[in-house]
Amino acid sequence: xxxxxxxxxxxxxxxxxxxxxxxxxxxxxxxxxxxxxxxxxxxxxxxxxxxxxxxxxxxxxxxxxxxxxxxxxxxxxxxxxxxxxxxxxxxxxxxxxxxxxxxxxxxxxxxxxxxxxxxxxxxxxxxxxxxxxxxxxxxxxxx
Amino acid sequence: xxxxxxxxxxxxxxxxxxxxxxxxxxxxxxxxxxxxxxxxxxxxxxxxxxxxxxxxxxxxxxxxxxxxxxxxxxxxxxxxxxxxxxxxxxxxxxxxxxxxxxxxxxxxxxxxxxxxxxxxxxxxxxxxxxxxxxxxxxxxxxxxxxxxxxxxxxxxxxxxxxxxxxxxxxxxxxxxxxxxxxxxxxxxxxxxxxxxxxxxxxxxxxxxxxxxxxxxxxxxxxxxxxxxxxxxxxxxxxxxxxxxxx
Lengths: 143, 246
Known about the structure:
With 143 residues, chain A is α+β, with helices and mostly antiparallel strands.
């Protein structure tokens, strides 16, 4: 019992030191949380704005298949990008895409895309699609 | 020995915690919310701009004519008539499968612009199909139809016609009188040529005329005069089709 009473009397060596230790712990933990939350918020904000910019570019895409012609036994397709953003594009005819790599078309630019030969009289649906997922269609009958 | 109550320690920590919380709110959460809000605003603005551009694309109203300067000229003239309320910028013309890009082909509203396609040479025995592309992404085919350069090196005469576009407020039947050579010339609209306009929108019709000439056109509705003027079809050197807007 005596030992217990003695321990009771010894608690809190100094109230000031204990207050300082507690404050230091709070500040340290708070600082870590602060730094973490600031970092997380910056990353979230950047991710969000990047996705919004990407979405804005996606809705800004405007392009048409302005012409298709069968020249020297090859179907050629002409694309006009009249939108406000550059696009990367491919053309699909009968489930085959042309060219194999994405074709970049600057805004306001025209591009000619070569495909392959088809059977005379065949009715084709030409689909031009961009990397961002927009489409344009054109119907063509092979002469 | 005097001791400080533990609630006092908690008070210090609470104050510090509150300051840190407010600090996090002001230095991380609120700036993030502002950035998100700005991104949303930019997206909405862009969406609105695109809606306006798409609407402008729909509102483009132009008529395209292509014709030779003379009966045997190997080049063609392109005439673009802008009947809309927006400035139209023609960026490309297609003659068959050959494109030609323009950088100075601007047509003001209610105006027309004519250009000689001197880069192009007609080959005898060929048909020519023409279309133009505007910078808003519209494609307009020639209103004067396709052209044939015959094996003798002469442009074949196409169909000569007068097109009527009636947007007069009143709906119902409109009587059209057409005389060849002028007001005193022989009447062509016998039996009478009548155009019906519904109340939902303008009416369109056309009348074949025999040759390139001056035609007197009079449009009346219940004897009230709506339009009266001479229409000249000057081909070659002009389009084989002329419009009457009443």
